[in-house]
Write a structure and sequence with these properties.
mainly beta, 10 Kd Chaperonin, Protein Cpn10, Chain O, 6-stranded antiparallel β-sheet, 6 strands, 7% helix, 28% strand, globular
Length: 107
Amino acid sequence: MSKSKASQPLEVVEPIGPRVLVRKDEPKRETKGGIALPDAAEIPTITGRIVTISAAVEHDEDMPLRQYDKILFHPKNAIPVDLEHDNQLFVVPVEDVVAVFRRPTVD
């Protein structure tokens, strides 16, 4: 591989198998009542937006996940993707996606 290609940053992360790439939401810094929390007491955030879905998930009619969906996920098996300074990207197995937030459709 040439030196110029090796120094180019990665631009695309495509999950393989039944996985999605998620940008985790910012951690909460205050309670619903408005009480500010110190950094050490942050409430763990397990919601985020789907950035990319794998081809396996995209073609699975039983898996109702789409790009840009807001999801709730179990963080235990989430794998951090170290491409950005804030490191908010994670590859999440679809079995760890617990819920999808959707607006009700108006007929």
